[in-house]
TrEMBL record:
Name by which UniProt lists this protein: Polyphenol oxidase family protein
Key word Electron transport present: no
Keywords recorded for this protein, A-Z: Copper, Hydrolase, Metal-binding, Transferase, Zinc
Catalytic activity: S-methyl-5'-thioadenosine + phosphate = 5-(methylsulfanyl)-alpha-D-ribose 1-phosphate + adenine; adenosine + phosphate = alpha-D-ribose 1-phosphate + adenine; inosine + phosphate = alpha-D-ribose 1-phosphate + hypoxanthine; adenosine + H2O + H(+) = inosine + NH4(+)
Signal peptide boundaries: none
Organism of provenance: Gleimia hominis
Job description of the protein: Purine nucleoside enzyme that catalyzes the phosphorolysis of adenosine and inosine nucleosides, yielding D-ribose 1-phosphate and the respective free bases, adenine and hypoxanthine. Also catalyzes the phosphorolysis of S-methyl-5'-thioadenosine into adenine and S-methyl-5-thio-alpha-D-ribose 1-phosphate. Also has adenosine deaminase activity.
Length: 237
């Protein structure tokens, strides 16, 4: 299992990668329970990650919503604990699953609070990033830092004309052109703009494009793919 563990304002974070490519099936590890994989294999991957992290992990059932869950319990079996697209915890770890969408990890007040956020096109439109920052502020957070993980890049996220116009009218910074000269969206630019507007100015990046990176799951590359995760752990552990 490949995962990096840098520090984000007092919190430990990591982004997983594919370690075992599978010819006919889903590459491992895979952390997504809703992709047609063997649930027991997924739960085993999740428990292995929790062991590596050193604490239980709160997992989300992500639905491209604007919902932020605060301090839900972690299930030691590794099952989804909450239906949301952002989760904030005061102790332990949280994870976000992606396969082209943008994973965002946030640390508030030197890791006192941490958040994992799932921002796809619909999540960006619904301001899931801003909602998460607002929820952290409501908890009393003053200093917030963010790490934006690997996602599909603006040169690869081709969309149709209707989607392009609808999204760029709401957030013009999403406007991009694909490598083929067609309409595209730059989700990373949209997330950065929303973080800055919400007052988060300490932003770090993993610049890899999921579609272009073989050891990252990408739905655009293969619709039967699994999910990698970004995880973050509070500073009290």
């Amino acid at each position: 299992m490949h995962t990096s563990s840098p520090d984000l304002d007092g919190a430990r974070i990591g982004f997983t990668r594919i370690q075992t490519p599978v010819a006919d099936g889903i590459d491992r590890p895979n952390y997504g329970l809703a992709v047609g994989d063997d649930p027991q294999a997924v739960l085993a991957d999740r428990r292995a990650l929790a062991h590596l992290v050193g604490s239980p992990i709160v997992w989300m059932e992500q639905t491209h919503s604007d919902c932020v869950a605060v301090n839900p319990p972690a299930d030691p079996r590794g099952k989804n604990a909450v239906q949301a697209d952002a989760v904030i915890v005061a102790s332990g770890a949280a994870a976000v699953q992606v396969a082209d969408c943008v994973p965002i990890l946030m640390s508030a007040d030197r890791g006192r609070w941490v958040a994992a956020v799932h921002a796809g096109r619909r999540g960006v439109e619904k301001n899931i990033v801003s909602n998460t920052v607002r929820a952290l502020r409501d908890l009393g957070a003053e200093s917030i830092s963010a790490w934006v993980g690997p996602c599909i890049c603006g040169k690869c996220y081709e969309v149709d004309e209707k989607t392009f116009r609808a999204c760029t009218q709401v957030l013009p910074v999403l406007q991009a052109e694909s490598r083929w000269g067609t309409r595209a969206l730059d989700l990373r630019a949209g997330v950065d703009a929303q973080l800055n507007e919400a007052g988060v100015h300490h932003i770090h990046h993993r610049e890899e494009c999921t579609l272009e990176t073989p050891d990252l799951h990408s739905y655009r590359r293969y619709t039967g793919c699994g999910r990698q995760v970004g995880w973050i752990q509070t500073s009290d552990l």
